[in-house]
Amino acid sequence: MGFGLSKLQLMVKAIENQDASELRTVIKDLSSIEIRNLCKSYVPSDEYLCTILHYVAWQDNPDLLAPLLDYVDELEMRDGHGWTPLMTAVNRGSKQNVRMLLARGAQIDCDWVGGMSLVADAMNFGDVELITILMDHGARVAPTPDMLDDSQNENAFYLLHYAVDDGYYDIAKLLIEKGKIPMNTLDQSGWSPMHLAAGHNNIDILTLLIEKGADINVKDSDGNTPLAWARELDATEAVNELQARGGIADKIWHGEKPELKTLEEREQEAIAEDNDDQDAEEKKLEAKINGIEHDRFEIEVEDAKLKPPKYPNGKDFKMADGLQRQRSDETY
């Protein structure tokens, strides 16, 4: 027991120091079974129940991951986030580790939605290459009818909407050309990618969508066309482009006016929310120091196991209005 713990601590230290040579030294006299078991062991005192394999996958250092993969017999084990090592590597944006794990047989559908959540996570980095790697290994970019009926993870179903909303032209182009993603789909808010491109006054993406076959007069769930959105949101260039291409719109607006925020605005809001959370924790700690235990008066209304995991790269998918995603910061 002591031997195993000592080796575990030495492995953690080598990983933290990014010392692949030392890691190999630590494991060189161990049997295959011992190394395999250590890879499944939790990092000491880690609140997220991170295993050694998850911890190595997070490091974005293939020299650390490579010597352990020769002994691992379970690539689908999950940490406290509910992540597999592949999910961890994707959320780190580690293309090399993602390639290595996939080459060893890691399952692309470990997210239960055909890899769509992995693609969504990769989009946090705006990384076309990482998304391409996932798609080349079978990651879906659009749900099947069964997924829409059965899955609770609807955040991953609107990948083209996400790309358009964040202004990722190259990703939108990849999803359309390589992924053959439907372009007229309405999201949970009843909006299509065309509405978002028009509302954001993003002419490049708007033109891309139109030239790839999107319906220029697709209606949102209230009956408004992209031209109506452009007018309502004072997107002058989009108005001119849509009118020149035959866009039409009713004279009156239907429903509530959409409120679109840029990626930068959402990130600033997330930072402000994180600061508020930190202030609340500091006040709570100060109250405890002063002998006031607020916890005893609080009523637990959520099961921690049911809460969505925080994403270590600082961006957490939550559908507030179908598109405007909030982010939160957590790290291993």
TrEMBL record:
Keywords: ANK repeat, Repeat
Residue numbers spanned by region Disordered: 300-332
Pfam family of the protein (one): Ank_2
Stretches with biased composition (Basic and acidic residues): 313-332
SMART domains in UniProt: ANK
Entry annotated with the keyword Repeat: yes
ANK repeat boundaries on the chain: 81-109, 189-221
Gene3D superfamilies: Ankyrin repeat-containing domain
Protein name: Uncharacterized protein
